[in-house]
Design goal:
Helix 3 (26-46) runs antiparallel to helix 4, helix 5 packs antiparallel against helix 8 and helix 7 (122-136) runs parallel beside helix 10. This protein has eleven helices and no strands. The protein is an all-alpha fold. It has helices at residues 2-16, 18-23, 26-46, 51-70, 75-106, 117-120, 122-136, 142-156, 160-186, 199-217, 220-235. The protein has one domain (2-235). Helix content is 80%, strand content 0%.
Length: 237
């Protein structure tokens, strides 16, 4: 999915260029589509009880942030978009891998059936929690950096509504992810012998969670790369 988005970004900014995008109002269409995806994807995610379907609709919402950033046509917005691409790739990989491990171990697909899973599969659920915090945009996790720059880019472009949607989208994200964490840790523990996956998958989960934290705590080198790429895209006519 990220590959397609990068190709789309290159077509927009290298084939058409930001001047032509603005002349034909393409940037406004992208911002509008991004806002619709953020709100609609989040609302649909809230309605899902199946774990992977909730994460899938969450992806719709998160791609909305990237489309919104592509339409801001300024350095901060594009920097946030590029950083968010990397952040979301790590976060969502961790969330889906954790979800897959949970389903493989329990045979349960519905969130309402996962009571106490956090105490039966502590590493898996810890990674899911880290990914959730990153996706919501909590400080010290990678999602916060991307959303912060998207927010700054929205305000710089004068898109007050877009800035409001970014904030509302984060609140809705918390509304559909935090209940999963609550059920996993604070509901009664089942008698079933559910366990974390084998060592190779544990290592993959831990590395993905570490990536979310590293991008959030020391974003400097990655932000610099994203900023340089954004400036280069904006000077192409």
């Amino acid at each position: 999915m990220k590959g397609y988005l990068i190709c789309f970004l290159k077509v927009l900014y290298k084939v058409f260029g930001h001047t032509l995008m603005q002349e034909f109002m393409m940037h406004r269409i992208l911002v509008l589509l991004g806002m619709i995806a953020i709100i609609a994807g989040s609302i649909f995610a809230l309605a899902q009880d199946e774990l992977k379907r909730r994460l899938a609709f969450s992806t719709v919402a998160q791609v909305g942030y990237i489309f919104l950033g592509l339409g801001l046509v300024n350095t901060k917005g594009l920097t946030g978009t590029l950083f968010y691409l990397a952040s979301h790739a790590v976060i969502k990989s961790g969330l889906f891998l954790a979800a897959g491990a949970i389903i493989a171990a329990t045979g349960k697909h519905r969130i309402s059936e996962l009571a106490g899973i956090g105490r039966k599969m502590p590493i898996t659920m810890a990674v899911f929690t880290v990914g959730s915090l990153g996706l919501v945009g909590i400080p010290l996790f990678s999602g916060f950096i991307g959303k912060w720059y998207l927010l700054l880019g929205s305000l710089e472009a004068g898109h007050i509504l877009a800035a409001a949607v970014i904030i509302v989208g984060s609140v809705l994200c918390a509304a559909y992810l935090f209940p999963i964490i609550r059920i996993a840790y604070f509901e009664p523990v089942p008698e079933e012998d559910w366990r974390d996956p084998g060592m190779p998958q544990k290592i993959a989960l831990i590395l993905l969670a570490a990536g979310v934290v590293i991008l959030g705590v020391v974003p400097g080198p990655f932000l610099e790369l994203a900023s340089r790429a954004a400036m280069e895209l904006l000077v192409i006519q």
